[in-house]
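PROTEIN FOLDING TASK:
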Amino acid sequence: MISIANLTKTYASGLQALKRVDLDIRKGEIFALLGPNGAGKTTLISIVCGIVTPSTGEVRVDGHDILREYRATRSRIGLVPQELHTDMFETVWSTVAFSRGLFGCAPNAAHLEKVLRDLSLWDRRHHKIMTLSGGMKRRVLIAKALSHEPQVLFLDEPTAGVDVELRRDMWGLVRKLRESGVTIILTTHYIDEAEEMADRIGVINKGELIMVEEKAKLMKKLGKKQLTVHLVEPLARLPEALGEWNLALKNDGSDLEYNFNEKDEHTGIPELLRRLGDLGLEFKDLETRESSLEDIFVSLVSERA
């Protein structure tokens, strides 16, 4: 659905926001773009949506070039931006209906009603935007983006600062859209959302796309497990006899942390537990935890820092 080749963006200030980005996004998938502040996420989205002009490279949406066939590509895209941009004196219904008309779509009251109902906005359709709460204004932005029935939906930090109810409603709507064939691209600081929702993950840092991978494969490839040994008596320091396990003392010496790769045939855990027994170090409990997507993301970005 989206094909990006050799894409770069350098602003007049000299800032190189994107460095030779190549990316293909499939029809009907949820693709999460992760990266720290200033990594280039919004610049990339803005170029695909026709808001920012690229320095070099080519972007196609459903086979159409974003520069030579601007109207064809833009009509296929819905964008939910980070910032609230809408006329505060208009009603919800007028705002959403006007947005649909901007894309040359014929009036379709039934579609607009469905969108507003899905976003719990139907009862507020005659309210002016200025009277709505922040969360409701965010819902209006989503309704605007869906008003012209786009094939691609960009969600740029869509749940930043919104309530739990809206997050739940919005992700339910996203799942329905994906089931209908809409391609979803999201950026988020809530990495647990990407872990739950995305089919594939892309990590961008300092303008470079450093990894694109199926979520399940990424978790399997880079995920590690952590063993925590809860000691009966805390340790002031690690005994030299435990040096080969690369352990860390935590919780004022009461816990031993050991990271290992569960795919390795030899994890070293049985030997570690035997060595603790040989040293007379009693433990009251063992706890294992798998790496989360956040752990993997932090690790990838730290390596490129």
Q: What stands out?
A: The chain has ten helices and 14 strands. Residues 40 and 207 are 5 Å apart (CA to CA). Residues 2-220 form a domain with the Rossmann fold fold (CATH 3.40.50.300).
